Amino acid sequence: TGGMGGLGLLVAKRLLEKECRGLILTGRSPSNHSLQSKLLQLYGDNKQVKYVAADISKRHDVIELHSFCNRNFGQVDGIIHCAGLNKDSYLIKKELADFRQTLAPKITGVLNLDWVWKDDNLQWFVLFSSSAASLGNAGQGDYSAGNGFLNDFAILRNALLQQKLRQGHAISINWPYWSEGGMKIEEEMLKLMVSQTGLEPLSAQSGLDLFEQSLAMDMDQF
């Protein structure tokens, strides 16, 4: 999910380098000429890469997505939930609609994915959370809450896994700021972040290596 976003595209490229048998990218954008041209530019005429327009916060869209996967690929081995959006604003100024829009992919979206794929033989269920879930960030109260939900959801789903009510280990990865891909912040804000926290942006190479490691980890949260 969020397969045409910055992180989604980086992860997709790494999976294809590892000879992934098939890859389904999803996003809310309709499959128009511009998007298909971008796919062709990125992946060439690779029949194993397909894009499906789906709003994962809508149960019907996720059911249709599941049907598409079964028709075109059969078994889905894993789900990587990268979808998310952020509308930075202090809580006193934030509109309720913005709050709901930010939470939708993180909460309703992951619940829909889990429910629709609950009987499938998944190997893993990866949730792209954020360090903001633990550290917080000014103007990101809703974003922090949504990512915090992903952390707790991984624990819940793994408990269901132990009860044989789910298949595939879930892990929530609390990513810091990536230097490539992902949500972008202004240069001045980036300098302020580094000076105040000492946290440097994560390189794409390091992030992708850590992503691969996470698939083998027996942890709820990484």
Total number of beta strands: 5
Helix content: 40-55%
**N- and C-termini, Cα separation:** 19 Å
* DSSP summary: helix tally: 9
Largest sheet: 3 strands, parallel
What percentage of amino acids are in beta strands? 5-15%
- What is the multimeric organization of the chains shown? single chain
Show unreliable segments. Answer: none
Shape, per Cα inertia axes: globular
Query: What would you call the structural class?
Result: alpha/beta
Rg, Cα atoms, Å: 17 Å
User: Would you list the SSEs in sequence order as H and E?
Assistant: HEHEHEHHEHHEHH
Spatial order of the strands in the main sheet? 3-4-5
Mean pLDDT score: 86
List key phrases describing it.
9 helices, 3-stranded parallel sheet, two-stranded parallel sheet, 222 residues, 13% strand, alpha/beta, 5 strands
Give a structural overview.
With 222 residues, the chain is of the alpha/beta class. It has nine helices and five strands. The protein has helices at residues 6-17, 33-43, 59-72, 96-106, 108-116, 132-135, 141-162, 187-197, 204-215; strands at residues 23-27, 49-53, 78-81, 124-130, 169-175. A three-stranded parallel beta sheet has the order 3-4-5, with helices on both faces. Helix 2 (33-43) links the parallel strand 1 and strand 2 (49-53). The mean pLDDT is 86.
